[in-house]
Amino acid sequence: MKPQLILLAGNRKVLFDFPSRLPSDINKDQFKQVVLNLFSNAVQHTNPTTGVIQVIGKINEKELSLIIQDNGHGIPQEHLPHLFERFYKADASRSRAYGGAGLGLAISASIIELHGGKIHVESKLNAGTAFEIVLPLT
Ligand SMILES: Nc1ncnc2c1ncn2[C@@H]1O[C@H](COP(=O)(O)OP(=O)(O)O)[C@@H](O)[C@H]1O
Ligand SMILES: [Mg+2]
């Protein structure tokens, strides 16, 4: 999936550090859907030339963790608790230009929770945003 992400990123810098093989109990299609959702958001909310997006994954016996971090404009703190709600957009006027429906994060969270995992966001205005996923492995 790395080549696909690099293509999506255009001139943004992509730092990709993820084990090349996924554990067999991970639903690959669903996992890719989540990564694609989070990565597309990072692309949309970073500068096309100075943007930097990091995809860092780790796998141990217990869990898979994934962090997708960007150096974009960030999200005001008051929006963070609502971000995973269906149709929620943090900045209506700005987001409208992207034409997203506000469903990507809701779908991602549903997929992760369906598999007993957790998704978490941290963001700082004018500094960037990081989404972290932790998925238990059986
Ligand atoms: N990496 C990010 N940087 C800044 N804002 C983000 C980021 N990811 C998501 N958001 C905010 O969260 C909202 C919801 O994201 P999402 O559910 O993917 O919907 P959509 O991308 O269709 O707007 C976005 O509209 C945007 O305001
Ligand atoms: Mg989106």
Word description of this protein:
The model has no long low-confidence stretch (mean pLDDT 93). The chain is globular and about 40 Å long. The protein has one domain (2-136): Heat Shock Protein 90. The two termini are 24 Å apart. Helix 2 runs antiparallel to helix 4. It has helices at 2-9, 28-44, 92-96, 104-114, and strands at residues 13-17, 52-59, 63-70, 118-124, 128-136. Strands 1-2-3-5-4 form a five-stranded mixed sheet, covered by helices on one side. The longest helix has 17 residues, at 28-44. Helix 2 (28-44) links the parallel strand 1 and strand 2. It has 138 residues and is an alpha+beta fold. Magnesium ion is lined by residues 37, 40-41, 100, 104.
Question: Top keywords for this entry?
Answer:
single chain; 138 residues; alpha+beta; Heat Shock Protein 90; 5-stranded mixed beta sheet; 4 helices; 27% strand; binds adenosine-5'-diphosphate; binds magnesium ion
